[in-house]
Design goal:
Layout: H1 14-17, E1 26-32, H2 40-55, E2 61-68, H3 71-75, E3 79-80, E4 89-95, H4 101-113, E5 123-136, E6 154-161, E7 175-183, E8 197-204, H5 208-224, E9 229-238
Antiparallel strand pairs: 1-4, 1-5, 2-4, 2-9, 3-9, 5-7, 6-8, 6-9, 7-8
Length: 249
């Protein structure tokens, strides 16, 4: 359903912007593949109903999002190198900064120790980044600061080698807003780095497969310039509560 909203978009309205901005700065992505025994739906229910709500007791957590790929989503990827090819599930946590990560890990240990942790889906890895920019489509009316909290149908996740601002993707149909991040060393106690990579999250209010086709064309032109190289460019569906199997094969 097409929707149009009246009024001045927030990012063009100084009185609205003067009331405040988000302090979410750090994204922590957990990437995993499907379970070999087909227990994905059970895991998604536990993670959405039990695990993710508990994370909000961490003072610095501002947002969390869970998305899932389908075979059709996989076929629509514009890039997928071996390092990320197995990614079927993505969880994105947004924190105020790395100072929140010790409590995030402490909570994980407390849940494990008290029988509140389901066996993990097979892990692919983590990606961590610091926000470098954000933009909202004028048609969405809401400002770029609050795009992650707007209901969405899916996410288009882009991981690139190199760094180029992503605001030129905002006019792609179905893209309501974009946040992009520079990869950083993982906060303690996690080990690893995403330095030299850019993480871009395109928030979609249209069918992810429809937006994926348009984004693939735009990304091909972006990568042809040579400033960045696509490592993963993939559409994902937002997990629908209580319909855990909707986007599972």
């Amino acid at each position: 359903m097409d929707m149009a909203f009246a009024g001045t978009p927030s990012d063009a309205c100084p009185p609205i912007l003067a009331t405040g901005t988000t302090d979410a700065r750090l994204v922590f992505l957990s990437l995993s593949r499907r379970a070999a025994v087909g227990r994905d739906a059970e895991y998604l229910a536990w993670h959405t109903m039990d695990h993710r709500p508990e994370q909000y007791r961490i003072a610095g957590l501002r947002h969390s999002l869970r998305v899932v790929s389908t075979p059709e989503c996989r076929a629509a990827r514009a890039a997928s190198v071996a390092e990320y090819d197995d990614v079927d599930h993505v969880v994105a946590y947004m924190f105020t900064g790395p100072e929140s990560i010790p409590a995030f890990h402490q909570l994980y240990l407390a849940l494990v120790d008290n029988g509140r942790f389901e066996p993990k889906l097979p892990p692919v890895g983590f990606v961590v980044g610091e926000c470098q920019g954000r933009v909202a489509a004028p048609r969405a009316v809401i400002g770029a600061d609050v795009v992650p909290w707007r209901p969405m149908k899916g996410l288009y996740l882009i991981i690139e080698q190199g760094s180029v601002p992503a605001e030129d993707l905002i006019d792609v149909p179905g893209v309501a807003g974009i946040w992009w991040f520079d990869g950083v060393d993982f906060p303690s106690p996690f080990q690893g780095t995403a330095k030299g990579r850019q993480i871009t999250m395109c928030y979609l209010d249209d069918d992810p497969l429809v937006s994926a086709a348009a984004l693939a064309e735009r990304l091909a032109k972006r990568w042809k310039v040579g400033a960045v190289k696509g490592l993963l460019a993939a559409p994902f569906h937002t997990v629908v509560p209580f319909e855990w199997s909707r986007y599972l094969p």
